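User: Some background: our group keeps a shared notebook of sequences we're curious about, and every so often someone picks one and asks for a predicted structure to add to the entry. Today it's my turn. The entry only has the sequence so far, pasted here. Could you supply the structure so I can complete it?
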Amino acid sequence: MNADKIPDIIIGRLPIYLRALQRLAEKGTQTTSSQELGEMIGISAAQIRKDISQFGEFGKQGTGYSIPFLIERLQTILKVNRVWDVIIVGMGDIGHGLARYNGFGNRGFQVTMLFDNDPDKVGQTINDLEVFSISGMTEKIKHNKVKIAIVSVPAAVAQTVTDQLVKAGVKAILNYAPIHLNVPKDVQVQHIDPATHLQRMTYYL
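Assistant: Of course. Here's the predicted structure to add to the notebook entry:
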């Protein structure tokens, strides 16, 4: 399977399927169908079958999908069959909330370091993690070989922070700053701007 040949929109749906399957597994369910999954998440059964078939044949006609098997395969495809270390840069309201969020651990991620440039915040402890100064960030990231960062700093400094992260070897950035980040081609960025998503929805109101 060549990852570059799978459309990004399909990759974006896989975590939604995985989350639905995990909810079914928690109830003790062993098998499901594309129809049942579709009704849970609002995506057509045909689309689900088409997406999953990009990665091989996982279901049998008439018997559906084995939930434990499909969970294991999707975790492997998404590379969350391990725990990834994640750092958060910017300990304002969003960063603080993310540092305290308990929903990362069971989805393949563990927040391991926090950074800020505010002397009042540096040295604080949030969820048992100390807030470090951004001034020593590059060295700490390199030393710990962290590949994933969440950026929740003001727009004015977001690109500077991103440049430091890229220099330190970070390959995936979740960006909460309301600005487009310029990164090399081998670095993945996902932009999370609540106001933009709200504006997209108000079009339909």
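Suggested note for the entry: Helices lie at 8-26, 34-41, 45-53, 67-77, 93-100, 137-144, 155-167, 194-202. Residues 3-77 form a domain with the Arc Repressor Mutant, subunit A fold (CATH 1.10.10.10).
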